[in-house]
Amino acid sequence: MLVLAGKNNIAVNVLDYLLENYNDNFVVVCNQTDGGHHGWQRSLKKTALDKGVREISLEEAYEQASVFLSLEFDKIVRPEKFKKARAYNIHFSLLPKYKGMYTSIWPLLNSEISSGVTLHEIDSGIDTGPIIEQREFSITKHDRARDLYEKYLTTSFELIKERLNDIITGNLSVTTQAKDYSTYYSKQSLDFSKLEVDLNQTAFFIAKQIYSFSFREYQLPLIKGETIVEAEILDARSTVKPGTILDKQADFYDLATIDFDIRLYFDRIDRINEFSTCTADQASRLLKGLCGVNDRNKNGWSPIIIAAYHGNIDVVKFLLDRGANINDCNNNGTSVLMYAKDFSIQSGNKELFEFLVSNGADLSHKDFSGKQLIDYLSEKEKKFLSVK
What we know:
GO molecular function: transferase activity
Domain Formyl transferase N-terminal: 68-159
Number of strands: 13
Oligomer: single chain
Protein name: Methionyl-tRNA formyltransferase
ANK repeats: 299-331
Keywords: ANK repeat, Transferase
């Protein structure tokens, strides 16, 4: 029996994949913090309950499992306690680097240019088990902590799908982790109750701190009484004490640093709906009040979702050029293309819909109710949009 242990979208996505492609010989172990309701990420407990998948305890898993797969699981797993299981984990880093906690933050603070995920065996240490496979991805200069986390989720799911048969059968080869370049960060390595941006630093590193701590669902940097979401390093050299406010406007202030002045933009998530009708130039300015192009409000609406729903094709194109996710979706799994579909049907103009499809929008995407775009279309609408 396969036991899937963990939380959030990564665990739910794997559960959905198991339900679609494998028999029913699997169960789940949920995190203690899983309250059984969906939020900005889906609940494994609720999904399992809704789909008739049995939930067991970790102690029961020790007795019953033949394969144990940990995906953001919150308990310490003791491999020696399994009666017969092979135990595996997905860790969000390229081990042996970044063992432990906060793998969406420390690589950014350390100015890494890449990260990745590691599928490894669980042993008695902390992320020290033999490596089965790794997948690397680039970290861009625009990535925030939340962006990095999303890359971990996407890359992990692709890796698991490709290796799930091998995980189930045990047809795996492993490599012992290297001794060199091994690093570890404990839960105490960051204290979010006392999180402060060090202003006695270079402009580059101040900006790096802002990006590293930008994860709207958890925290945003607070500097001199303002919530900061964006940083722009100016050409002017700083000539006064680092941290001094040089100029304050409605949406930003300029600070002195160790080397160059820096402009820090205030959080303006309340203006996100303006992407519905703004121009590309206005969108560029609006983005400075957000945590990047893929930021979203409490409903899970990002700039590209709002622009697509209102048929603002020029802004959709601008946002894609700035790195927006063409397959972004809200908290219910409704995709950009699904929103564009609504606009196209209501307006009779399918230019945006066709543009998105031709540029890689996923027609087969399923929302969290399990429906694809085609399931929401009448025969007349299918013909209009040329969807089969």
